[in-house]
Automatic annotation (TrEMBL):
Gene Ontology BP annotations: regulation of DNA repair
Keywords per UniProt: Cytoplasm
Organism domain of life: Bacteria
Subcellular localization, as worded in the UniProt entry: Cytoplasm
Record-given protein name: Regulatory protein RecX
InterPro entries per record: RecX_HTH_1st, RecX_HTH_2nd, RecX_HTH_3rd, Regulatory_RecX, WH-like_DNA-bd_sf
Length: 271
């Protein structure tokens, strides 16, 4: 039966120990264990170890390695259960050990998908311009289940969404541009949808805004867009046909009929 002849501290880790054994007057390196395993099993010089006990100790140590690896991974930021599973699988950890460590970490409250999802929602609300749909996708990508996600998103109130959408919309609509005001509105709506806000909150914000574009600025925009259309179409058309094509192009760009007629009269010749 192998006997422990020497226990030494590893050079790279003061919390791991090398266990040396002797059997039939032959000393050899047996295995290494974490400090906690060393204490739990009361490993000491002169102790006799059965093959079954050695296997049990190594099993426990392997499990402990997975646990410490997981705790280190969780120490950088909160993680979802699926994130941890994916991480351990990439490290080629056996499924049995993954199940054990997941169970232990949940018991110790170090892994909690409910707390994780709520914390992520609150953080995104405070630090980003993301809407609820983008946050929902992020939670789904992290392996959270639908009921849990819906509960977490309750921490992103309609009032908070309205405030963010209004701020983004005003900033966009007040910026200088050569597009029509209608084009600007459509662009704002598209941007907000891409940021993950819903039609409900976007529509309510847009309808509540009292932002109006300066008449001269709108006319400058139609002149800019209209001259480009004239240059484009006058190569093949003139007179009535040119006017109709320019008009149609400006309508599509969202300009009002009054401004279009004024532009046509001032910039498109009959000849």
């Amino acid at each position: 039966m192998p006997e422990i002849t020497k226990i030494t501290t590893q050079k790279k880790s003061k919390y791991r120990y090398n266990i040396f054994l002797t059997e039939n007057n032959q000393e050899y390196y047996g295995f290494s264990v974490n400090e906690d395993i060393l204490i739990d099993y009361h490993l000491r010089k002169g102790m006799l170890l059965t093959p079954e006990l050695i296997e049990q100790i190594q099993e426990q140590d392997s499990s402990y390695k997975v646990y410490t690896l997981s705790v280190k991974y969780l120490s950088f930021r909160m993680r979802s259960e699926q994130e941890l599973i994916d991480y351990l699988q990439k490290k080629e950890v056996e499924d049995t050990y993954i199940e054990e460590v997941i169970h232990r970490l949940k018991k110790e409250k170090l892994l909690d998908d409910t707390a994780f999802s709520e914390a992520l929602v609150r953080t995104r609300v405070q630090t980003s311009s993301k809407g609820p749909m983008l946050i929902k996708k992020e939670l789904m990508d992290k392996g959270l289940q639908a009921p849990l996600i819906e509960e977490a998103l309750k921490h992103y109130s309609f009032e908070q969404q309205f405030e963010k959408v209004e701020k983004l919309a005003r900033k966009k609509l007040n910026s200088s541009t050569k597009k029509s005001f209608k084009q600007q509105e459509d662009s704002v709506k598209q941007t907000l949808l891409q940021k993950g806000f819903t039609f409900d909150v976007i529509s309510e914000v847009i309808n509540s805004l009292d932002v109006e574009r300066d008449h001269d600025e709108e006319y400058n925009a139609i002149v800019f867009q209209g001259e480009k259309l004239v240059t484009k179409y006058q190569k093949k058309d003139s007179g009535f046909a040119l006017k109709q094509k320019v008009k149609a192009g400006l309508y599509r760009k969202g300009f009002a009929g009054e401004l279009i007629n004024r532009f046509i009269e001032e910039y498109v010749n009959e000849d």
